[in-house]
Amino acid sequence: MAAQRAGRRGQEMADDEAHTPLQAILLADSFTQRFRPITMERPKVLLPLVGVPMIDYTLEWLASAGIEEVFVFCCAHAKQVTSYLKTSRWKSQPNFKLTCIQSDDCVSAGDALRSIDQRNVVLCSSKVLGDFVLVSGDTVSNMPLKEVIQEHKARRTKDKLAVMTMVVKRCKPSPLTHQTRLGNEELVLAIDPATKQLLHYGAPNKQRQSILLDKNLLAGRQGVRLHLDMQDCHIDICSPEVLMLFTDNFDYQQMRRDFVRGLLSDEIMGNKVYTYEIFEDYATRIDNFRAYDVVSKDVLHRWTYPIVPEVSFSDSQATVNLDRCNKYREQGATVSRNALIGENTFLGQGTTIGSHSKIKNSVIGRGCKIGENVVVEGSYIWDNVTIADNVQVIQSIICDGVLVKAGARLEPGVVLSFKVTIGENFTVPQYSKISRVPEPTEQDSSDEELEYADSTGDDSGGRIYISANKVQVGQDGAGYRWFKDAVHDEEWKQSAAAISGEKIKELMAKQEQEEDDIQDVDVIPEEKLLSDEEESVDEDDNFEKEVEENFKRAVNGVKLENVVLEVNSLKLGYNKAFSDCAGAMFRAMLNLALETPHSTAAELLSTTKQVISKWSTLFRNFLKSEDDQIEVLLKFEELCLESASEFSPLFSKVVEELYDKDLVSEEAVMSWASEKAGAEEADKVFLRQCESFIKWLNEAEEEESEED
Amino acid sequence: MVAAAMPDLQAAVDDFVIKLKRRQVEGSLATAKSTVLLLRQVVSHQRIPSSGPASSLIDAVKSVGSRLIAANPMELAVGNMVRRVLHIIREEEATIVAAQVGVTPVSDSDDDADVHGVPGLSAVALAAANRTALRAPSLHNLLESLPTSAGANVEPVPESDTKSRSSDKNSKSWKLKHGVIDAIGLLLGEIENYHSEISEQALEHIHQNEVILTLGRSRSLLHFFREAKKKRSFQVFVAEGAPRYQGHKFAKELAAMELQTTVITDSAVFALISRVNMVIVGAHAVMANGGIVAPVGMHMVALAARRHAVPFVVLTGLHKLCPLYPHNPSVVLNELKSPSQVLDFGEMSDCLDGTDGSPVHVVNPMFDYVPPELISLFITDSGGHNPSYVYRLVAEIYSPEDH
């Protein structure tokens, strides 16, 4: 295996001549809040991983894999990222071009890619032209890219619709692995073993303990392989079309949840996603504290070779010595003779460690002062941290400039953000996150997935210091405890604290329990699966909900044409007709009217009329034919009978309004009436209500014809 | 013009440093060759001031060399080549100085000539004295010194007579540079041809119907066997060389040239060593005490060979000869590679985390150090040598001030 790899490497070098510049887009923002509160003050990609900012790992890997041009897309804390990159050695690397793209208004990976696509159109120069590698700035890998890119290109020449290749890696085949290792959700992939095409991507259904697969997937295939043991490396080889797809589908936010699933469920366009499995190489993404802990250990254990601490790839000049048992020590770290430095440790330059202190499985950055009798286990201490005597730090993350006073104790899962001070003899409880920046209140966080706050931190520092809470950080401590995520159910899963043996046992027990459950009800879910009806009911509901969502977006100010486009795409996605759209839209409008407070039926009628008149232009887009209009009427009737019974006395009034606004033609009303005429008596309630209106319509028609 | 070329050179150096760091260039032959090529560029681009030409060259080579060595300290061949080039510069300077010393009596007044007696003879004597002063005496020197200095004596006389002092200096620095570049060319030739030099000796060592054991893969060994195959028929056991399994590839190559080949696991070496007539292996580097740095597993093979009194022969080019001693703590003698070669990632993820009890360590060292006591013979491009003679070779091809 190894020989093969060496050969492969050699071949890569030989292939160097066939030249099209390999490009990559690096998203220097994860668009999540998982690293809060740390990311309030520093962008995630600049957080140190074993002494080196994460983005350097990603760039080093890209550069060594032969990528020649990287576009770094900065969003949160864009200035910090760009200024870091400007002074870094990446700017002066031979055969390596780095371009920063800044944007302030992106809240998701989807926005970022759309923005890149737009700029691409504008600039049009040597910007992204061919296939490119899409990664985020927190990827740690050592996989060679040439082969996967070649495979992708070869596939593309044969099939233009193969727009993306996803890198996956097999991990330990246990459903618990994903969770316990990287804090991710379980992941089920369905892959065609012959072509490596990805057919399904998603989490298994927890309640049903099953996976729903479209039976069409099996058509024309020899087989489909379902994987529970694959880890998504979040490394994608994309064709330029991917950017366009994002622009076309402006509601795609996340790469996986929206884009990949969108592509897979979209049969009309027929775009395909393929997978590429790596075996010996390492590749993963750090998207929560748990992953941070695991990947740090992997780096110390040298899985990422040659991207390991003593092979210096960052700007720091200090040489790192490697001792037995993965003990890394930068030159200039001073350790007392009595201190015990255990396995898997990294000590940065200028750090001093006092006597009788015990350090194990930990990373300690540069310029730290660790006092006497300190215990540090499984923790990540960044730069310039001062830890006084007799402190215990267990499975915690401590950012730059923190001061932990004597006798304090940090329990597993604690995160101390920049410059926090912990008072003497204070015990910080499990999983607590403490920051100098107060936690945003609910209103503040309405711009949810953002981590802007480009504040320098210095100006606000003093003020916060005064208002620090003694209960939260101890006597003469400084900082606020963040509670928002603390109640989070899955805290144990994503914190830096290693998952305890008990928790794993508990999980295993649960797992077994669930497995037993499945055996008990083994037959039933299968039947459920087979019943297409239920599924389609589900789909109908989903469709209506989504249309309603879109309508609400229109209410909230999104442009009409966008909403129309969106609903149209939903229509295609769910394989519906215009009539369905119209029905769903009408229902959404009625719901809107219902939601506005009203006391009497008359009030409700007037608000309904307002809504109808206001949105008539939008609504008309879906009333292409008489059938659509009839469908609206039928839908309305149905609604009046079921959910929105408040409308039942107003039925005829609303129908009249629709007619007045020219949304429903008289032919439609008439054919509805004639259709209903043959129905059962119970169904004729609304028909009778409308009798007078219909009569009037009939007369009007007659008059017209008489006039003719 | 030289100044314009400098950024180019800088880029070339950076490029090579990065490749070394990323471990994209590995193996003693490849690194040695690239190093020498790069240093030749350095020498040819170096603007030589009229005063102290050699020292400026030495400084330039040293500064580039130290960067290269730091980039991957485990590739000892890089350091070797840097030292070889430094040695070449020093030698070249010595030759020129010797020549000048030889010249002065001729061009200057007759008084000096009187003091020294017959001018021609005194030049030879002085040059020889000078050389021995600059260089530790060695077998080669003693034999070579006479003809070279005599030759140097003849050449420079007319030049210094006709030209002015500064032009003399210029020509001197030019000559130095020229000489150094020529000598580096020779060094390059030596590196490129060492396979054939070594394999010429194959017939002296491999006899009819012998059983030979080796571990891993070695290019010089392949040439060696090919040469021996022409006249002799013999059998080869190849230990696979886990975890990189270079032995598998090697066995294929041997089978392709119709040699009777058997692949064994590394752990089977001891079981089979009693049937073996000779162990022949390649090395990554040879230390100054005669020990070798070789692919992991080699120490075990050497011990097995010693136990059964089987000769343990090492093929090595002179470029692998390192003037450092293995007890020198500043020499990192091993490189720890990714555990993924040993173990599939995730296979033991539950115990690697150390969540339950103490974690499992996976260590994947690349090299073994085999002490000189276990080595019977070195076959180099300059012939066969005992481990105890290695220090002598080191003294001959390196200058002590560069160690």
From TrEMBL, chain A:
The record, for SUPFAM superfamilies, names:
ARM repeat, Nucleotide-diphospho-sugar transferases
Give UniProt keywords alphabetically.
Cytoplasm
CDD domains (UniProt xref): eIF-2B_epsilon_N, LbH_eIF2B_epsilon, W2_eIF2B_epsilon
Gene Ontology terms, MF aspect: guanyl-nucleotide exchange factor activity; translation initiation factor activity; translation initiation factor binding
Q: Where is the W2 domain?
A: 533-707
Gene Ontology cellular-component terms for this entry are: cytosol; eukaryotic translation initiation factor 2B complex
Q: Where in the cell is it found?
A: Cytoplasm, Cytosol
Compositional bias per record (Acidic residues), positions renumbered to this chain = 441-452
- Annotated region described as Disordered, given as residue ranges: 435-458
Q: How does it assemble?
A: Component of the translation initiation factor 2B (eIF2B) complex which is a heterodecamer of two sets of five different subunits: alpha, beta, gamma, delta and epsilon. Subunits alpha, beta and delta comprise a regulatory subcomplex and subunits epsilon and gamma comprise a catalytic subcomplex. Within the complex, the hexameric regulatory complex resides at the center, with the two heterodimeric catalytic subcomplexes bound on opposite sides.
Family membership = Belongs to the eIF-2B gamma/epsilon subunits family.
Protein name (Swiss-Prot/TrEMBL): Translation initiation factor eIF2B subunit epsilon
